[in-house]
Amino acid sequence: MKRIVPLFLLTLLYFTLQNYNYAQRVNSEDYYFLNWEENKSITLNGILSSDAEFVSWNCVNNAGVIVKNPSGNKTEVVFSRPGYYLFNYSIMKSNGTIDSHYVIVNAFTTGSYKERLNDLISLMTTEEKIKQLTNQADSIPRLGLRAYNYWNESLHGVLAEGATSFPQAIALGATWDPRLVNRVATAVSDEARALNRLYGKGLTYWSPTINIARDPRWGRNEESYSEDPYLLSRMGVAFIKGMQGDHPYYLKTVATPKHFIANNEEERRHTGSSDVDMRNLYEYYLPAFKSAIVEARAYSIMGAYNELNHVPSNANMFLMTDLLRRQWGFEGYVVSDCGAIHDMLYGHKFFKTGAEAVARSILAGCDLNCGQAYREFIKDALDEGLLREKDIDSALFRVLSARFRLGEFDPPELVPYSSIGKDKLDSKENRRLALDAARKSIVLLKNNDILPIDKSKIKSIAVIGPNAREAQLGIYSGFPNVLISPLEGIKNKADSLDIRVGYVKGCDIGGGLLKPIDPEYFGVIEEKGIKGLLGEYFDNMNLEGTPVITKVDSLIDFSFGMNSPADGVPSDKFSVRWRGTIIPPDTINYIGTSCDDGVRLYIDNKLIINDWKEHGEKPIAAEVKLLPGKKYDVVFEYFDNSLGATARLTWDLGQKDFEKAKKIAAENDLVILVLGITPGISQEELDRKEIELPSVQRELVKQTAEVNPNIVIVLVNGGPVALAGAEKYAKAIVENWYNGEFGGQALADVLFGDYNPGGKLPQTFYASTEQLPPMSDYDIINNPRTYMYLNEQALFPFGHGLSYTTFKYDSLKIVSNTLNETDTLSLQFRLTNVGNRNGDEVVQIYASCKDAKFKVPRKQLKRFRRLTLQTGESKVLEFKIPVDELAFYSTYENDFVVEKGAWEILIGSSSEDIRLSEKIIIK
Predict the structure, then answer these.
(1) Which one of 2.60.40.10, 3.10.180.10, 3.30.2350.10, 3.20.20.10 gives the CATH number of domain 807-922?
(2) CA atoms within 13 A on the CB side of 364
(3) Which residues form the PA14 domain (predicted)?
(4) 0.90 cut: is pTM over it?
């Protein structure tokens, strides 16, 4: 109720609490906690102003509440159950005006919230409920409900200023160490709690990404842990448990595994369908999500942009209700990806109206909308009878239950995580953990006795390459206080050893990572007499009619934001056509655009980029061959719909300086080439077209090898790279990933032998793009992808990773070689470090079915363990594998079935480096 007079003139209202052990205000003088287990009543005591004539106490949601003296300034209130109670306290003054206060009594019991939450929802208006079902939920002051932002990110550290940045997810996958991942997630959730306590930052986090890394061209490959469903599941479970904590009731944070399901392309995700048969779905795409819900008890999950088999994910009853809630027992809430509900209308064009889109989404089980669609269309859906109020209530109950479980509605003293403070943010312990994780993620791919660096022989090092000087963190990264690049890490280590280090960049990244075209390379617009492109600006999105304004733009590098691009042109729903010529000073291999929204680019009347649709800003590169000094006609067409506008015309000029690279390489004992890709080549909204190392980098390798054969290649990347022959020039290759704030230091520790690498590849490194089927093909079985089905030789196989020491596997024993499907396979073997260095090994156990009646994996990972052995140390390792974990999905049985007959158990250091094997029979 609106207050009639200013606050300072209102009667002061306060509560006197009698006969209680615990009651505390938290938000304001009008909000009180009452421990109902210990006290069933509370005394309300009003202090009246001199002109007060009448007092009235009223419980708005009168659920068994007894107000003993409703007309007195002092009254006892008795509660028959726990609940969330709203009281109206009215005072009539002598002048006839009435002042009103809303007062809340939160009568709680420990470890329980459902009655209170139902009360809270019952007190809301329909409009208030709707505004709670978006990622940026409004406050409701009269109910003591704060505004809340559900969108927070923690893929490999909290996305916030000053938070620790751990290695990217794909790098954590390369550790093959779930206990480490759990420690990382525990540190991340500590920092999340610290930020919540310091600044009120939300506690619902949209991570981890557990879409399986089925294709290295996928723009978000770096966000996934692995191409293997078992390894991905183990890492996902470890991360979720670390984020959510181990309290039986309170959640430390809410983890949100994403994106459910088969969200493995960027190019088509807003418009296309991921077509997946039931066997691929159950065996390959679903296991990590099932483990996240059933085993890790994730309290939220994010629906994907894409359709699954031509039904939008967020309106898919099979996914959201049948699988999640009925089969897996999911108790939390589903949130849509941002703008995904709008996509159903404007991208997929699956629904004709917004009302239908939101109704189908809510009824399917999508509770929370990231975006504005629910705010815009739920009321229409209610008015049209597509939704009932109780459907809204059910969704809201699931959403707000998370905030209750996080402790927002309980006294802070009762919430075990509420005391986590500033000392956990970027702490020394977390920095040590970030360094430890970075070291453990590094994979030694090749080593011809050049690593570790011989400190007695190597006196000078040339560090060359486009990724040497920058510390690449990857996408969804925070802003850490410490950031060590590969060059800095190497130089710091070398300086302490009196080893000289020189550096040149050698070349840019290439591969379509482009820069705006400099004005001097545009031709002259004759009618204006100046260099640039002639821009025709239209007040519509279709380049129709007469331009509002025509002008020469000397640089096409615009970020209009929400502003008008030119006089008389609207800030939204406009289009531009730029015409002119370009004259390259050197050979150009790539030309491109980076726009929000649609774009078309013509070179000499040939359409080379056609992306005439709505999307956020994304760079697009087209491979061309533009010769130096030649004049080319260019037409660049662009439109913007809403929510910001950017338009950039780019190319790859200025990528290489091979002569400087060769000179410094020739002058030093050792060359370290720091190569790879960056998020500018592969990220959200941007798939790679090919997986090969950009050609300019391959040429850099070749030319430096001509003057110095002692070459170490370091890869900095978020997914597999095909080296396309560059590997033959290197004596060693090290995979360093996007490795967090201490990535450069960890790399130096490995190169100089202060840390023995033990990481293993969580993905197959294919030999070339030609080994991959089209990205839109989701059938990994019949169109082979991953180590499980690939019949060709990979560049580096799944699970591969070398060490500076040597491990011996022997003494395999299997308790019983004949089993039935209800048995458990028990095995043991001995692992010995027979080298001269302490080190880590990841033992890997695979199963291979030999008598299958249909196509099955060549082998499939079933167990693994990372362990450290001192020189000469042996350990006997024991593993147990229930036979039913060997099952394949049968489309005839609509269930998993174990194939009878001969199987082989394979034990090794990688999927292709098998050291021990044994046959078993399943009856």
Answers:
(1) 2.60.40.10
(2) 25
(3) 528-666
(4) no
CATH of domain 7-109: 2.60.40.10
Find, among 285, 289, 268, the residue nearest to 276 by Cα.
Answer: 285
Provide the residue count of the chain: 923
Distance CA 178, CA 231 (A): 9
Tokens standing for 49? Answer: 């102003």
3-class SS of residue 804: coil
Q: Quick one: pLDDT at residue 51?
A: 67
Which ranges of 163-286 does DSSP label H, i.e. alpha helix? 169-175, 178-199, 229-244, 278-280
CA dihedral angle for residue 584, residue 589, residue 591, residue 592, rounded to 10 degrees? -160
CA atoms within 13 A on the CB side of 311: 13
Distance between CA atoms of residues 552 and 541, nearest Å:
20
* CA-CA-CA-CA torsion sign (785, 789, 790, 796): positive
Of the options 3.40.50.300, 3.30.565.10, 2.40.50.140, 3.40.50.1700, the CATH number for the domain spanning 435-511+656-789: 3.40.50.1700
140-145 own/partner pairs: CB under 8 Å, 24+ apart: 142/1, 142/86, 142/102, 143/86, 143/102, 143/104, 144/27, 144/28, 144/30, 144/31, 144/104, 144/106, 145/120
Look up residue 713 and give its amino acid.
I
- Fold for the domain defined by 515-603+616-651: Jelly Rolls (2.60.120)
Distance from C-alpha of 103 to C-alpha of 479, rounded to nearest angstrom:
41
Under-50 pLDDT residues of the chain: 1-28
Kindly report the number of other CB atoms within 10 A of residue 352's CB atom: 9
State residue 19's pLDDT score. Answer: 28
640 and 540 in contact (C-beta within 8 Å)? no
Q: Using CB atoms within 10 A of its CB, is residue 627 exposed (0-12), middle (13-18) or buried (19+)? A: exposed
Reading the block at residue 872, the tokens are 């000469």
- Single-letter amino acid code for the residue at 300: S
- Are both 7-109 and 515-603+616-651 of the same fold? no
Topology of domain 149-406 in CATH is TIM Barrel (3.20.20)
* Opening angle at CA 309, ends 308 and 314, nearest 5: 30
Enter the DSSP assignment of 509.
-
Burial 482-506 (b: 16+ CB within 10 A, else e): ebbbbbbbbbebbeeeebebebbbb
Catalytic residue chosen out of the listed positions 337, 410, 553, 749: 337
Closest C-alpha to 868, from 805, 793, 791: 805
What is the per-residue pLDDT across 660-678, written as a single tens digit (0 to 9) for each?
999 999 999 999 999 999 9
Closest Cα partner for 169 from 228, 232, 217? 232
CB proximity list for 644: less than 8 A, separation 6 or greater: 560, 561, 562, 596, 617
* Dist. CA 229–CA 101, nearest whole Å: 56
Contact yes or no for 313/340 (Cβ under 8 A): yes
Give the CA dihedral 35, 36, 41, 42, nearest 10 degrees: 30
Residue (of 864, 855, 861) closest to 899 by Cα position = 855
* Residue 236 DSSP symbol: H
Please give the structure tokens belonging to residue 477. Answer: 């990264």
Closest CA to 343 of 259, 257, 221: 259
Angle between helices 229-244 and 287-294 (to 10 degrees): 30
Ordered by start, the domain boundaries in the chain are 7-109, 149-406, 435-511+656-789, 515-603+616-651, 807-922
Task: Please choose, from the candidates 779, 776, 772, the residue with its C-alpha nearest in 3D space to the C-alpha of residue 276.
Answer: 779
Six-digit token string for 171? 């790098």
Which is it for strands 98-108 and 31-35: parallel, antiparallel or unpaired?
Answer: parallel
pLDDT of residue 237: 99
Active site residue 337: yes
